[in-house]
Amino acid sequence: MPSCKFCEIASGEAPAAIVFEDSATLAFLDHRPLFPGHILLIPHRHVANLAELPGELSGVLFRNARLLALALETALGAQGAFLALNNKVSQSVPHLHVHIVPRSKGDGLRGFFWPRTRYRDDAHLERTRELLRDAIARLQHHP
Fold first, then answer.
1. Where in the sequence numbering do the catalytic residues fall?
2. Measured on CA atoms in the order 46, 48, 49, 52, is the torsion positive or negative?
3. What is the maximum span of the chain, computed from C-alpha positions, in angstroms?
4. Which domain CATH number covers 60?
5. Could you read off the pLDDT of 80-138 as tens digits, one per residue?
6. Sign of the alpha-carbon torsion through 90, 59, 134, 127
7. pTM: predicted TM-score of the whole model, two decimal places
């Protein structure tokens, strides 16, 4: 496997401003933050994307994301936090990571400019719903 920058940070081979660590995860300050306090939370072990995240790490990862979001409010006076997880597309480092960004009203972050669309008609909406429900049922029985 090619070198992974986040695996190097997790193993101590590369420097990072670590703010939190437990047996499953590591959190450090992003070196190019949206705002000061922008944290990246990663699993210690290499997990490339959300599909590869083992179930036993899911709860720990998001419990720690919650903890870190609350810490931004307490430590930095943030009014809230923005949490994001790019999955495959736009994932600059192929190691699963959650962005935890401090937010305050009027901070200038405009969010994402996603083009909005509509379903062609009610039948299109219903067919999309059915396809997703079927896929979810299959995945729940055969992950």
1. 97
2. negative
3. 54
4. 3.30.428.10
5. 999 999 888 887 899 999 999 989 998 888 766 556 678 899 998 788 878 867 877 88
6. negative
7. 0.83
